[in-house]
Structure prediction request, 295 residues.
Amino acid sequence: MTPEEILSYPARVLTQAQRERYFEKGYIGVESLVPADLLADLVKVTEEFVDASRTETQSGKIFDLGPGHTKDSPVLRRLKRPDDQHEAYWGFASGLMADVAADLAGPNVTYHHSKLNFKWFDKSDTVKWHQDIQFFPHTNYNVFTIGCYLADTDMSNGPLAVLPGSHNKPLYDQYDAKGNWTGMLSDEDAAKVDMSQADYLTGPAGSITIHNCRTLHYSPASKSKQPRPLLLNCYSSSDAKPYTPHPDPSSHAYRVIRGQPVKWAHHDPRPCQIPPDWSGGYTSIYAAQSGEDAA
Ligand SMILES: O=C(O)CCC(=O)C(=O)O
Prediction:
């Protein structure tokens, strides 16, 4: 569907101006969107998972652990597939966030994946400039991620930053010169990004961020002792069909969560880089960006 067709459907959660801005800039941030009781449930469940990670010693199917993780000082970088780990996360992804998704995807929405990323005052917390669609190419670019801050997030604890308008520019090469997947821009390309244009999406707990799958984004390391949990849910318009294996499918991957399955795929002619074949298993963006994944 084109943005004009999508915008012709009544808005469910976002304002019409927010929807228009998303299509124009490739992202939006909406402060304090999530009701306090819903947020409190997510925060409580998340604290339980951080506690559960304390006894883990290495990254596995559920926990991605950062360097220096210990029982007393957990460095849980990511809770993988939270939608499969607790019903509170799936309820959120298939509830309020799915309604937000329908405002941008159109009436037929397909769920892609969820992840819960933390930052813990560690330089390994930087997520470098990258675009998402090279991780999971689809027949068109109506694929996007909605983040929800589960703690107050400002410039001190690693907010998500986006480059306005980058969704309408060409995609970058996310392999290095030796052909290894890095999941990020080369140092040379990253150095050319005009940092003065970067928009840092901050806000109190319960604020959301939305970025299109082509939008260039990164997040700086946290300089605060307070962890920064960002719950990310990714969706597509149902007319965007994936053509490479899902990096890390949960039991809900590709479920149509609003509207109907569609009979026709929409094809965008702009090319997309193909990721490595992850049908045998995927680690994480942190592993790729730090070279842990390089063959
Ligand atoms: O956690 C963050 O700050 C950004 C994460 C991100 O961009 C990603 O996982 O693709």
